[in-house]
Design brief:
Layout lengths: L1 H9 L5 H36 L3 H10 L1 E2 L2 E5 L3 H11 L4 H17 L3 H25 L21 H20 L3 H24 L5 H29 L1 H8 L1
Antiparallel strand pairs: 1-2
Helix pairs in contact: 2-9, 4-8, 5-6, 5-7, 6-7, 6-9, 7-8, 7-9, 8-9
Length: 249
């Protein structure tokens, strides 16, 4: 009996609950490290933008995307401009608001009330954060090339890039929780990242944002979406959102 007890205690590290604990702690560690890196990158970029050190780089990129003989004409065939005019709306407040409302309606119909609350808070907080950041930095819009789309607010960070990252990545995280295969999870995440990237690129191509505006928007958007994801995971652990899934089924 004593030998059996000794053998069992010697294998305590193989218990399933301990392996789950290790995975959970590693996940939080890596996400926390990523947040720190993103915060450092954003603060560094914001400092460079505030001091005007990125102006030469920004101007060079914007002018490179226009016809040297006529800055009002972007490079490339006409269909690129038309496509990016459509894509930039994907990151606008109207489309993002509609997508969020539709998803909230679906979650409520599925009795996923707590998940719906997380999505609503993430979306609303992203809108508030965008307004605060723009007022804080108060960077004027680019004037080196004509705008191909109307824009009225300040420039840094890009609200389209930031809010599309927050909304689409948060929705992707929710869908990934419902997916079974890793390939499906990777597909969902790839689509969310692609949409966010295309929205940001469209803002620079249309001349309404500097490249550093978009980079700043992406950075703070990824960071805020990660923070909301961590809060949702914590909320799920205490509020038993898994019970909502079972009820919906």
């Amino acid at each position: 009996m004593r030998k059996k007890a000794t053998a069992s205690s010697g294998r305590w590290w193989t218990l399933p609950w301990l392996r789950r604990l290790e995975r959970r702690e590693l996940t939080w560690l890596f996400v926390g490290l990523g947040l720190c890196l993103m915060l450092f990158a954003f603060v560094s970029l914001a400092g460079e933008v505030t001091e005007g050190d990125t102006q030469a780089f920004d101007t060079k990129i914007l002018r490179a995307l226009r016809d040297p003989a006529d800055p009002s004409k972007p490079i490339g065939p006409a269909w690129i401009e038309n496509s990016l005019l459509d894509l930039t709306a994907v990151g606008g407040s109207t489309v993002l608001g509609l997508v969020t409302v539709f998803v909230l309606g679906f979650l409520v119909l599925q009795t996923r009330y707590r998940t719906a609350v997380v999505v609503a808070i993430t979306s609303i907080s992203g809108e508030v954060l965008n307004a605060v950041m723009k007022q804080l930095f108060n960077r004027p819009r680019p004037t080196v090339v004509p705008h191909l789309r109307d824009a009225f607010s300040t420039s840094f960070p890009s609200g389209h890039a930031m809010e599309s990252a927050i909304v689409y990545l948060t929705l992707a995280a929710i869908l990934m929780r419902a997916a079974d295969s890793r390939f499906t999870k990777a597909y969902i995440l790839s689509i969310a990242v692609l949409l966010t990237a295309l929205v940001g690129i469209s803002r620079v191509y249309l001349g309404v944002h500097y490249p550093t505006d978009v980079i700043g928007g992406w950075t703070i958007g990824f960071m805020w979406a990660s923070i909301c994801w961590l809060a949702a995971r914590r909320f799920e652990g205490t509020a038993h959102i898994e019970a909502e899934k079972a009820k919906a089924e």
